[in-house]
Structure formats: C-alpha cells, structure tokens
Design brief:
- The chain is mainly alpha-helical.
- About 70% of the residues lie in helices and about 10% in strands.
- The chain has a three-stranded antiparallel sheet.
- Strand 2 and strand 3 form a beta hairpin.
- The longest helix has about 50 residues.
- The radius of gyration is 38 Å and the shape is elongated.
C-alpha cells in the first residue's frame, strides 16, 4: 500500500534505495539533500516519511507510529482521509510534541523575565536598593509585631482593670442595697 502526499517524484529513487535496505522491526533516519528520510518497520509493513532536515526526528517517528496504529485499525478508504489529517496535525511540532511545547513555553517565560529585568534596570533600581528595601520592610514588620503585642497587653490590662472596677462597684452596690 502506498500513500503519497505532495510532490514525491523527486524522492522516488532514493526511497526505493532505502526500502531495499529496510530490516524487519527497525527504525532509521537517512539525511540526504536537505531532507531526512525516516522509516519504521513493524515486521510486516514499512512506514516512511520525508521531512526537511531541521524537522524533529522524534516527531517524525511519532507520526509514523500513529500512521501504523491508524492503518492497523482502519480500512484503506478511511485511512487516506485520516492520513491527510495526520499530516496536517504533525506538520506543526507544537501541536503534537510535548517537549517542543515546553521549550516554547520556557522561551516565552525567559523572554518575559528578560523584559522584567530590563524594566528594573531602566527604572534604575539596583539589586542593592531592592535588598535595602527588603531589610527595611522586614524591620518595619518586626517593629509592627512588637508594637501590636504591646498594645494587646495594654488593652488586656485595661480590660482587667475595667472588670475589677465593675466588680468593686457591684460589691459596693450590693453592700448598699443590703444595708
């Protein structure tokens, strides 16, 4: 079964040479003329794709494994339509390769961090100034904690004094009422 997509005439000779060298249950890549020829053999069938030399081999072999899986589970007519869908999906590594997505996100985060560092430098805030501000803030928070603890103790004693005064007044009032 041969499923082709795109201009494949210029690759036919080299593909024929590669297919002769295929061994059972093997997977290899060949680089020739700015293209990479990746193949996967499962023992019965050989699946081959041609990509640009810069295309990730990992994504190519994932594509071939997916093609193998789909081909094993579908009839020939359904396979052709799914083949084109898979080619479109796998043509963008960001859609199917986790490593590529993570690297892309990492590059985005790196860019944001560089922008943030540039903004800090533009504002003229040196790391020493930020460290001093952090130390000042830490000292201020410790002072606040001490003063709030002192205030809490003062308020507690005022509350105790109030209860003592109310108790004495209640005793005096009871004493006056009883007499």
């Amino acid at each position: 079964v041969l499923v082709e997509s795109g201009d494949v005439a210029k690759f036919n000779t080299l593909v024929s040479q590669i297919l002769v060298k295929v061994q059972k249950k093997d997977r290899k890549s060949y680089l020739h003329g700015g293209h990479t020829y990746n193949y996967l053999n499962n023992g019965n069938l050989t699946f081959l794709c041609v990509t640009d030399k810069d295309f990730l081999a990992r994504v190519s072999f994932d594509f071939l494994k997916k093609i193998e899986s789909v081909y094993s589970n579908q009839s020939s007519t359904k396979f052709t339509s799914q083949f084109k869908e898979l080619m479109e999906t796998y043509s963008d590594p960001h859609k199917v390769d986790r490593v590529t997505r993570v690297k892309s996100k990492l590059d985005d985060v790196k860019g944001v961090m560089i922008d943030n560092i540039d903004k800090v430098m533009e504002r003229g805030e040196a790391l020493d100034t930020i460290e001093e501000r952090t130390a000042d803030l830490s000292n201020a928070s410790m002072d606040f904690r001490r003063s709030s603890t002192t205030l809490r103790k003062v308020m507690w004693w005022k509350n105790v004094k109030l209860w003592i005064v109310l108790g004495v007044l209640l005793v005096v009032l009871l004493f006056v009422v009883v007499w």
